């Protein structure tokens, strides 16, 4: 069984996730840890639970989701995975970060590209990679069919969806991604988003005011 631990980091209240199973192997998704306290909180949980991080994944590369990339790579000697289409977003962070009052952003390079339809494995667990652009051009979601959940980044929220007023964002593309890649999952799948609390596929299909399911 895959366990999920979430942290809310940085001034933009971004959700960072650690996933791990009974083997002790773990993956870190969207490390938004920026200051010393946040980094210590992340490392403290890993140490306390005797976990072994083996991969670092980004759902997408907006500034609040990548602030801890360099720290995590250095701390654990692991590779960073990102969809290739989001490289322009990642490369723009050094320019965008100061606009958010972030002056100490540390760049790092992508080591492996995520590909739609492939699986990410750790321990006895695996996640399907689904391509869900719109909020960002290379946005992906990670789906556990065994444990019936989605790590969705900034695509689908409880009663909302990801913003599309950023450069390289597009609402129609986002809506198509949600309908074809997320709303096609069973209703009981839990969505763990990049901000705010969790929801379910069924709840959003029924009541999300921005993207309704097509019957």
UniProtKB/TrEMBL annotation:
<keyword id="KW-0378">Hydrolase</keyword>
<keyword id="KW-0862">Zinc</keyword>
<dbReference type="GO" id="GO:0016787">
    <property type="term" value="F:hydrolase activity"/>
</dbReference>
<dbReference type="InterPro" id="IPR036866">
    <property type="entry name" value="RibonucZ/Hydroxyglut_hydro"/>
</dbReference>
<dbReference type="Pfam" id="PF00753">
    <property type="entry name" value="Lactamase_B"/>
</dbReference>
<feature type="domain" description="Metallo-beta-lactamase">
    <location>
        <begin position="13"/>
        <end position="195"/>
    </location>
</feature>
<dbReference type="InterPro" id="IPR001279">
    <property type="entry name" value="Metallo-B-lactamas"/>
</dbReference>
<protein>
    <submittedName>
        <fullName>MBL fold metallo-hydrolase</fullName>
    </submittedName>
</protein>
<keyword id="KW-0479">Metal-binding</keyword>
<dbReference type="GO" id="GO:0046872">
    <property type="term" value="F:metal ion binding"/>
</dbReference>
<dbReference type="InterPro" id="IPR051453">
    <property type="entry name" value="MBL_Glyoxalase_II"/>
</dbReference>
């Amino acid at each position: 069984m895959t366990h999920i631990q979430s942290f809310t980091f940085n001034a933009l209240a971004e959700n960072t996730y650690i996933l791990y199973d009974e083997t002790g192997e773990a993956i870190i998704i969207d490390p938004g840890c920026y200051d010393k306290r946040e980094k210590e909180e992340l490392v403290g949980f890993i140490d306390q639970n005797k976990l072994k991080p083996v991969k670092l994944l980004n759902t997408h590369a907006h500034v609040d989701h990548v602030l801890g990339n360099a720290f995590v790579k250095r701390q654990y000697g692991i590779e960073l995975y990102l969809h290739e289409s989001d490289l322009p977003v990642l490369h723009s962070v050094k320019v965008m970060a100061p606009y958010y009052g972030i002056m100490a952003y540390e760049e790092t390079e992508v080591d492996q590209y995520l590909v739609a339809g492939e699986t990410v494995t750790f321990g006895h667990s695996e996640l399907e990679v689904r391509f869900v652009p719109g909020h960002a051009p290379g946005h992906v979601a990670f789906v556990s069919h065994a444990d019936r959940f989605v790590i969705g980044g900034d695509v689908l929220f409880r009663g909302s969806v990801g913003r599309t007023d950023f450069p390289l964002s597009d609402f129609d593309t986002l809506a198509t991604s949600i309908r074809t890649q997320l709303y096609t999952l069973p209703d009981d799948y839990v969505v763990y988003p990049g901000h705010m609390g969790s929801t379910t596929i069924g709840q959003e299909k029924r009541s999300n005011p921005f993207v309704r399911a097509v019957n």
